[in-house]
Amino acid sequence: MAGSKIDEWVMQYSDMLLRYALPRVHDREIAKDLVQETFVAAWRNIDHFRGEISEKNWLYTILKNKIIDHFRKAANRLTDSLPEIGEETAFRNNGHWKSENYPAAWGIDYNQGIESKEFYEVLDQCKSKLKDLQNMVFTMKYLEGAASEEICKVLHITPSNYWVLLHRAKVQLRSCLEKNWFLR
Amino acid sequence: MKWIISCRDASKFILQDEEKKLTVGERRRLRFHLAFCYMCRLFSKQAKLITRCAHDAHEHSTAAFSEDEKQQLLQNLNNSH
């Protein structure tokens, strides 16, 4: 590849792209690979880059597609038997919250944003504890803002599986944040 | 579906409501449940807060390539044509 342009990209954008990929895939090596593949794809397609969007947003778009591809492949390896569907953790048989999962008041204004860096580290740790498929559904829905129809297609799951996975992911993440941040 | 729904169903309805995927009847059952269930009202507020925070997660990340990793990346890129 032509040296100077690549050097410039790496210096200017590699950390930004890594920060985007890491909370989505939770694996530094995979995130680094995705960033590398993004630069390679960008370089191969540089003739198609017309400057209609900024270089930065163009790289983001390529990386987003790489991440979705990564999920598609990972889900293909997982979804044959859907082992993650079927177990229930947060609710009793009668559908009531289990005592250890009772939502408790956090004593904050829920409409305010949270600025603390440490909070986002805890969020990331809690998210990384989710099972693979739950995590991918959560990431595509809440980090990428994808539509549920697209998520089902990419991850090869039915709409009813989607809701079960998203529901469990959010219930578990809420409990984890409560224990490790809001009421620690 | 029964008029009285469980917390399991209510918390799922809360997420489905964010995507406007509830029927009129389901939304009515959810409202009725929330009217007397403090825990699900909390879940609703907290779930929405988590949605907003998750969306901004990468803006708060401090991750970075180390110098070595950057050099390795450059080397890999310059070797791939």
From TrEMBL, chain A:
InterPro entries: RNA_pol_sigma-70-like, RNA_pol_sigma-70_dom, RNA_pol_sigma70_r2, RNA_pol_sigma70_r4_t2, RNA_pol_sigma_r2, RNA_pol_sigma_r3/r4-like, WH-like_DNA-bd_sf
SUPFAM superfamilies according to UniProt: Sigma2 domain of RNA polymerase sigma factors, Sigma3 and sigma4 domains of RNA polymerase sigma factors
Pfam families: Sigma70_r2 (PF04542), Sigma70_r4_2 (PF08281)
Domain RNA polymerase sigma-70 region stretches: 10-75
Sorted UniProt keywords: DNA-binding, Sigma factor, Transcription, Transcription regulation
Gene Ontology biological-process entries: DNA-templated transcription initiation
Keyword match Chaperone: no
Molecular function, one GO term: sigma factor activity
Keyword Transcription: yes
Domain annotation RNA polymerase sigma factor 70 region 4 type: ranges: 121-173
Family named by the database record: Belongs to the sigma-70 factor family. ECF subfamily.
Protein name per its UniProtKB record: RNA polymerase subunit sigma-70
Source taxonomy: Bacteria, Pseudomonadati, Bacteroidota, Chitinophagia, Chitinophagales
From TrEMBL, chain B:
Identification of the protein by name: Zf-HC2 domain-containing protein
